[in-house]
Amino acid sequence: RYEKQLSLLDDKKFAVPPLVPVMVDVKPSDAKLLTEERIQMLTSIGVELAPFGANVYKVNTVPTWAIHDPQFYVEDLLHQLFEEPSIQPDKLRLYALASKACKTSIKAQDVLTMEAMQSLVNRLFECQYPYTCPHGRPTMVQFSKRQLEAMFNRSGF
């Protein structure tokens, strides 16, 4: 998902209004951090915000590839911006893509068909970087025969 999102970055200059109006609430302490410089940084990556009352901002535009969940995308960007005030625009954008990719991926309790599992593995090995997620966590682990046998209380097979 992350690499697919990266391929859509070419659309970053094409900002569009959300399909449904989006408002984001920020804590008063965070609202003070939304300086004109930071609002311009967000605009440079396709997110245009406008004040809409005390500690509320209206989202006027988002990148076209974020149109399906603009609320989540903008709130995630703001969270990262408040956590790391000196972050650069490109790093902020990559963070948002990585977060979106992870949060929309298959979870541990999801039930998959055998075909879906095979498709997932096939797509994983089509990736440029198949061994870790964008946050650095492994996407697969390797067990020796001995470790596998120990997990099933077997040995010597």
Structure, briefly:
Helices cover 43% and strands 11% of the residues.
Low-confidence stretches: none
What level of helicity do the residues show? 40-55%
Main sheet specs: 4 strands, antiparallel
Structural class: alpha+beta
- If you average the pLDDT, what whole number results? 86
**Order of secondary-structure elements:** HEEHHEEHHHH
Instruction: Indicate the proportion of strand residues.
Output: 5-15%
The span between the termini is 39 Å
Helical region count?
A: 7
Cα-based radius of gyration, to the nearest Å = 20 Å
Approximate shape:
elongated
How many E-type strands? 4
Textual characterization of the structure:
The chain is an alpha+beta fold and 157 residues long. The chain is built from 7 helices and 4 strands. It has helices spanning 2-7, 28-31, 36-44, 70-83, 89-103, 114-125, 145-151, and strands spanning 15-16, 22-25, 48-51, 56-63. Strands 1, 2, 3 and 4 form a 4-stranded antiparallel beta sheet that branches. Strand 3 and strand 4 form a beta hairpin. The radius of gyration is 20 Å and the shape is elongated.
Topology readout:
Elements: H1 2-7, E1 15-16, E2 22-25, H2 28-31, H3 36-44, E3 48-51, E4 56-63, H4 70-83, H5 89-103, H6 114-125, H7 145-151
Antiparallel strand pairs: 1-4, 2-4, 3-4
Helix pairs in contact: 4-5
